[in-house]
Amino acid sequence: MYAFEYLRAGSLDEACARLGEGSARALAGGQTLLGAMKLRMSQSDRLVDLGGIAELRGIEDRTSSLVIGAMTRHAEVAASSRVRERIPALAALAAGIGDVQVRNMGTIGGSVANNDPAACYPSALLALDATVHTSRRSLQAEAFFTGFYGTALKEGELIRSVEFPVPRRAAYVKFRQPASRFALVGVFVAQTAGGARVAVTGGGAGVFRATALESSLDQAFTADSLRGLRFPPDDLASDLHASAEYRAHLIPVLASRAVEQALAD
User: Fold this and answer.
1) How far apart are CA 124 and CA 66, in angstroms?
2) CA-to-CA distance for 128 and 141, rounded, in angstroms?
3) Where residue 192 sits, what CATH number does that domain have?
4) Distance between CA 130 and CA 139 in Å, rounded?
5) CA–CA gap between residue 210 and residue 230 (Å, rounded)
6) CA-CA to 121 of 20 to 30 Å: which in 44, 68, 96, 147?
7) How many domains would you assign to the chain?
8) Mean per-residue pLDDT over the chain, rounded
9) Residues 143-173, buried b or exposed e (16+ Cβ, 10 A)?
10) pLDDT of residue 25
11) Does the global pTM surpass 0.90?
């Protein structure tokens, strides 16, 4: 690991100011950043720790949505009675991230800002049409995620919270890569006031919506409506864990299981 300066910010304003200096990076849960620095795959001359900023933590229950602070840990989302009651699929998703250590250190804001192409949270944001509130503005999930590890965040801009509209019903099912516990393929299905939304993670260069599956679910929100559907493998990833064709096979299978789960909850 390269030498770096460590600063613990006491407020969001201080953190944003510090991040505008040199090659500073924000430190949330550190589950990705610290590992990359240890392997010398990432280098920063300053880390700005967000752990002491109280305004970035917590879960707020609103009339038609839940607002989760960026520094809220995965374990806190999973254990929250508010989340488990209003969006149980989101609590279940958080409970299935990594292992106990990852869930007790990793944060929703860190995961969303990193936008790993196999991370679970981006699929929830996209399927639920969530809004990312930053230190400067508010962005819909479709505008926030920009591709392979890419987001619309600008230099010195931090995520404050993520606001999730409460769906009529939803569920998330993932086929886990057994070593990392990331999603080889993960599918989040939601039935919302505006229709069905299906978001896929782990399939390619980043999270995306499966619009053909959404159209079938708009006709009938049942698992049977997805059985037998074929998903094109053209833009999906092939690696040592799975071919693009296998991932394409998994998407409608997992989506149908998610619908079954959503209807059972």
Assistant:
1) 13
2) 9
3) 3.30.390.50
4) 9
5) 12
6) 44
7) 2
8) 94
9) ebbeeeeebebeebbbbbbbbbbbbebbbbb
10) 87
11) yes
